[in-house]
User: Fold this.
Amino acid sequence: MKYFLSILVCCAFISCKQAKEPAKTSEVEASELITLFKASNSGYPNISVHRGGKGLVNYPENALETLKYVNDSIVAVYEIDVAQTRDGQLVLLHDSSIDRTTTGSGKVADLTYNELKQFNLKDDHGNETTFKIPLFSDVLDWSVKHNVILTIDIKKTVSQETVINAIRAAKAEDVSIIITYNVEQAMEAYKLAPELLLSVSARNNDEFERLLAAGIPTNSMLAFTGTRLSEASLFKRLHDNNIVCVLGTLGNLDKSAKAKGDVLYRQWKENGADIIATDRPFEAFKAINKL
Assistant:
């Protein structure tokens, strides 16, 4: 009898303890960007600044100072590139080497962050500045503080998980969009971080079909439609799914606008491009917003 009572008391204690513990859940809170970036909305930025600002005199690409400079004049999303140093630090850099954009040389993967700090960034015209290659964490902190949205291009030598962990550590989910280039990358990113908005490649109906077949929810998608003008039917289909469309004008389309008139940016938007990803952010912003 004593043995039986002991078992009852033990079971009661365990049941009570379990009742007091909060229920565990695998659910995560979705980024605010998943709600904001909808084709049915209009309150999101309509310009994406390529490499954080490219071709600007005295302001290098992928520099925190350049982000601040552009952000002082226009409302935009900023596309940045994230690389990793030999000692595991995440930094902003587009190329595999630092030769083109800094006063130094060598591959970023072979250099420590302290070694990188010895060099200055150069603008696209070859002018040396006093700016340094920034830490991704510093850019995230600034973006969170000023509510500036980033689209994050993860270089091949960096894992998505490492970048996503950095975003979470900075509590930057509400200002961060992960760029993916194919269905496999999109599937991996969605699996790792279902709470984040993803930029997916949807340059034609076939690519969009593959994304749908992969089971990625459409509300997690921001559609990059390429650097060429797509058929109106593609824009309509994406809009019918409430997906925002991004047109990359960087390259030939930017050159066309410069030669034929910036009014082209407005026409491209009226034809279905919700966001213009450009190397001419000031001109595109003025044209689209009729300033």
User: Anything to note?
Assistant: The chain is about 40% helix and 15% strand.
